Amino acid sequence: MRSDLLYRLPEPPKGIVRIRINPDAERRIRMNGPWLFAHGIRDMAGEARPGSLAALYGRGREFVAVGLYDPSSPLRVRVLRRFKPMEIDARYFANLAFEAAAKRRKAGFGGETTGFRLVNGESDGFPGLVMDLLGEVAVLKAYAASWLPWLSTVVPPLYEASGASALVFRCARKASAGFAGAGLEDGSVLLGEWGGGTVEFLERGLRFQAAPCLGQKTGFYLDQRDNRARVEALSAGRRVLDAFCFSGGFSLAAARGGACEVLSLDSDPHALALVEGHFRLNGHFPGVAACRHTVRNCDVFEALPALAREPGRFGLVVIDPPNLAPRERNRATALSAFRMLAGAGAALAEEGGTVAVASCSSHVHEDEFLEAVRAGIASSGKRMASESVTGLPADHPASFSEARYLRCLFAKVVG
Fold first, then answer.
1. What 3-state DSSP class applies to 160?
2. Mean pLDDT, residues 281-310 taken together
3. Where does 46-182 show beta strands of DSSP type E?
4. 38-52, 97-111, 189-203, range with the lowest pLDDT
């Protein structure tokens, strides 16, 4: 068992930092806000180190919350618990880990789905940490360096709850320096044995492969599972376009659902190779075997308008771009892009066809995203006969507004 690296990491700092917060910050946290920003601090006492426990106090020195302190981040404290003080120790995190595992089991994951999220950050009591299970490998991703001294406390119960044979550590780029300073690199194996490369897992019986040490998130976009199931249900007998296909989750779902033809677009040749590999892995399904599948390496923003000059239209157009607004300042540009993509997608849809447009950016608010997509469809000269909006699946609980980052508009277009 590869536990030597994990237990060489620093221990949690001793003592508690006491922070008095301003009224605005107190109100936000009492209303389930998960973070204390630096500008919300009035004064503080005690030795504040990365990962120190910070007790937050409001008016009249009343206890408000306790969390993990991070001096290098504008999110100065990530809240662990509100209102009632409790000792934060190994038992506390073990209870949270097994609660998370129990919730995922209740969500109905069985032998047909072996890839799902076990811990979803703030909404599961682990602010700045997520953990996905991909078959036999668990992948823990840290978005805050304040977790470094707590990893030897939280990882063992999470690993036990996962039932995995190995646990791989990933870290966000903005937090990587803090972990690298302790010798913990992105892609390190913290527990168990794993030879690297790819892992295989199931989603609703479909076989997928992912590289836990590479790519975005933890190696696969598990949050689109429900939308992939919906695409499968809409695909029978249709010609389907999957724009920004990445590893082909929507393409493969459409094929198993009976699509007569699927065209997968992406700018990354490696992603297109993954799509083709996934079709080979699932060739035992009659729909996949019968589907005419084509991949096209292209700039999707340029390819969608160009496709309108080619013969034939699509019964289902799926547009799932990467995060178009990684920062607040990108929001206006992202909304313009959604209008363009929706309009181009609608122009490619046949009469009565369906256009599905997704956003994974928390900086793009749902109402403005929907307005942009509707305006884009209208600009194509078509109108929506019906629409529905979907969000996150059950293994991605969202207890505050910023966590509800995923939305997808399914629109039937006519005219």
1. helix
2. 97
3. 53-57, 63-69, 75-82, 115-120, 129-134, 137-142, 166-171
4. 97-111
Mean pLDDT of 373-402: 95
Structure tokens at 111: 């032998």
Q: Which segments of 81-211 does DSSP mark as H helices, in order?
A: 90-106, 151-162, 176-180
pLDDT single digits (tens) 231-242: 999 999 999 999
Domain range for 98 is 89-202
Are 277 and 396 found together in one domain?
yes
| Average confidence (pLDDT) over 363-382 | 96
For position 260, which CATH number holds?
3.40.50.150
Number of folded domains in the chain?
A: 3
Domain identity same for 29 and 114: no
**Sign of CA pseudo-dihedral 359, 364, 365, 369:** negative
**Residue numbers annotated as active site:** 360
Closest CA to 376 of 397, 393, 359: 359
Sign of CA dihedral 60, 61, 66, 70: positive
pTM for the whole structure: 0.93
Q: Tell which of 49, 82, 115 closes a domain.
A: 82
In this structure, which amino acid lies at residue 4?
A: D
